[in-house]
Write a structure and sequence with these properties.
The chain is mostly helical. Helices cover 49% and strands 7% of the residues. It is elongated.
């Protein structure tokens, strides 16, 4: 945004806001492309916290990265629940091998990210409430991590 007139109007502010969101989405695409070029297979992004409430940003992520964005039912609660679950894992951490600990970390991420919305590329207006079809959802203990 070099050499951009510093208009103080609402339109200028909206343009700057959208340009900032695009920059964030492009940074994430760069990270995903780099990881995929090194042999990883990033096929979706699980989001939580305050940023998950910004559907414009989530749609930009889906569009720019070309992969779906999975949002939990309660974006704020997912962060707190995940932190508590990770704390418990850390307390028991010495009791697991590296492979088992990795699986437990993955299970925590999946349980905390049990989705309500699935934002696909150019599909913001077609978002539908999720169900028990979240990836890996079958690994969540009944009653503990689900509503």
């Amino acid at each position: 945004m070099l050499n951009h007139d510093k208009d103080s109007g609402v339109n200028d502010l909206a343009k700057r806001y959208h340009a900032t969101l695009e920059a964030i989405a492009l940074q994430n695409r760069h990270i995903i492309d780099t990881l995929n070029s090194k042999g990883h297979q990033i096929t979706s992004i699980f989001m939580s916290g305050g940023q998950a409430k910004n559907l414009t940003l989530m749609q930009l992520f889906a569009d720019v990265c070309g992969i779906p964005i999975v949002l939990p039912k309660d974006s704020g609660g997912a962060v707190v629940l995940g932190a508590a679950m990770l704390g418990r894992l850390a307390a028991d951490g010495g009791n697991f091998g590296k492979e088992e600990q990795g699986q437990k970390l993955w299970d925590i991420m999946v349980c905390v990210s049990f989705r309500q919305f699935f934002v696909a590329k150019a599909e913001l207006n077609k978002m539908a409430p999720g169900g028990n079809d979240a990836p890996g959802h079958g690994n969540c203990p009944k009653g503990r991590f689900q509503n």
